[in-house]
């Protein structure tokens, strides 16, 4: 898709309209090196049917990730310092601790499943590290070599530097997770469909995305609408996207996380129960 082409929503984008326009970066947005010197203007479009939001950055989205994304996102001290800071948060202040408990409560319904997980777009590695500490064997896939190397150094975690779209699926994971990942890509449906190929029979996909309607109720300055988020979902649009990827929505939660983020968390399974 062309970098300046408008993005559609999971119900085919026939009901999109402009919700608001940014002519400068909103307060708190990460200052990516790739945007320096670029005239900043972008529209946030909203689907009147499924409440899905889309926005394109004022340059090729891939450029955000080629030029210092890790440095810009994690700041001084980098991945290791950010990892330690998050892992040391008390449970009541930690989005990740609550995520882990939510996932384990669900997965405990399948006590016979092998505890093998794949975390796609693992970033800091906090989620696979926390799962590994609870007895899971984890693979963490990230396209950034520093993030993958960091994950590979965590106990119980195998770090893999790759774009998951380029990996041959291995259908041997009881859990595949996409935590705050699919909103960053042009085609979330294709990414979820690819990820489903890594599920073992009877496996579960866990997806977290920004909650667009929840965030919009607080106004356009919310981080859920920052430049790196091409898609911002509603519960309805996530369910439709999942269905197009061959997945049924088993359970969905709208959350206000300890960090203040508006989030949708969903447990998905292949249509018909087969990976």
Outline the secondary-structure elements.
Blueprint: E1 16-22, E2 42-47, E3 53-55, H1 61-66, H2 69-74, H3 78-87, H4 95-107, E4 116-120, H5 126-133, E5 137-142, H6 145-152, E6 157-161, E7 173-179, H7 188-196, E8 199-210, H8 212-216, E9 231-232, H9 235-244, E10 247-256, E11 262-270
Helix pairs in contact: 4-5
Short description:
By secondary structure, the protein is of the alpha/beta class.
Please give a structural write-up.
This protein has 275 residues and is of the alpha/beta class. 27% of the residues lie in helices and 26% in strands. It has helices at residues 61-66, 69-74, 78-87, 95-107, 126-133, 145-152, 188-196, 212-216, 235-244; strands at residues 16-22, 42-47, 53-55, 116-120, 137-142, 157-161, 173-179, 199-210, 231-232, 247-256, 262-270. It has a 7-stranded mixed beta sheet, with helices on both faces. Helix 7 (188-196) links the parallel strand 7 and strand 8 (199-210). The longest helix is centred in the middle third of the chain and has 13 residues, at 95-107. The model has no long low-confidence stretch (mean pLDDT 91).
């Amino acid at each position: 898709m062309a970098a300046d082409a408008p993005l559609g929503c999971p119900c085919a984008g026939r009901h999109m309209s402009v919700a608001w326009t940014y002519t400068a970066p909103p307060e708190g947005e990460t200052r990516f090196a790739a945007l320096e010197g670029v005239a900043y203007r972008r529209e946030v479009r909203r689907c009147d049917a499924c409440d899905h939001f889309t926005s394109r950055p004022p340059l090729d989205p891939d450029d955000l990730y080629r030029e210092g994304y890790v440095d810009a996102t994690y700041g001084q001290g980098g991945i290791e310092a950010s990892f330690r800071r998050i892992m040391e948060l008390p449970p009541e202040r930690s989005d990740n601790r609550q995520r882990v408990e939510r996932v384990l409560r669900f997965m405990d319904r399948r006590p016979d499943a092998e505890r093998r997980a794949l975390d796609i777009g693992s970033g800091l590695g906090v989620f696979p590290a926390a799962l590994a500490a609870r007895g899971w064997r984890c693979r963490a896939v990230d396209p950034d070599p520093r993030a993958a190397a960091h994950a590979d150094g965590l106990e119980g975690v195998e770090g893999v530097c790759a774009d998951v779209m380029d990996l041959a699926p291995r259908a041997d994971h009881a859990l595949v997770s996409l935590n705050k990942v699919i909103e960053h890509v042009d085609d979330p449906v294709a990414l979820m469909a690819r990820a489903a190929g890594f599920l073992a029979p009877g496996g579960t996909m866990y997806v977290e995305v920004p909650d667009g309607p929840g965030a919009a109720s607080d106004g356009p300055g919310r981080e859920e609408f920052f430049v790196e988020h091409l898609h911002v979902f509603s519960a309805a649009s996530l369910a439709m996207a999942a269905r197009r990827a061959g997945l049924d929505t088993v359970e969905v939660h709208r959350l206000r996380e300890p960090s203040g983020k508006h989030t949708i968390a969903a447990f998905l399974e292949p249509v018909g129960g087969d990976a």
